[in-house]
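User: Here's a chain of 173 residues. Predict its fold as tokens.
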Amino acid sequence: MIIQFLYEDGRSQVHDFLQSIRFQAEADSDYAHTFEGMMKVIAHLHQMKWLPYNLKNYWISLKTTNGYKKFHPLQSIPSPSYHLKLYEIRYNHIYSTDPRTLHWGARIFFFRERVNKQQVLFLTRALMVYDTLDLELNRKSEELYEVCRQLSFEIYIDFLENPSKYLLRGKDS
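Assistant: Prediction complete.
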């Protein structure tokens, strides 16, 4: 399977998000676990030939560095239109070293299309989500989630109208 970061104005929000987590991982074990987990989920998807067609809830089982299995869901996102199928990769980091944070995780929105007889996952937006004792941070996290979801739908609609704008060629792929 091909996994493609979507670029706008020469930048990929998802790529920048992952780089930010990688940078923070150098000093914070929570971010290190999150970065490792997200990269394992992406690598697992890359090794698959196809995602199931009627994907609603699909669980990926991966071993952590300490040998435990963790399950990470891929979920279908409710759509404003029946033909738009948007999904999210969910990586949950339950235990945080920050006592104010109950748990948190990373989300990556994507859509999939068939291109040249191959399934391509187009990664559109990514964010961190939080469940904390700080109600204001929780509200902002929920608002950001909704903004990323909406932007992902808008990108998907634009892709369907103008696919050549998003398809990489040659050395860019």
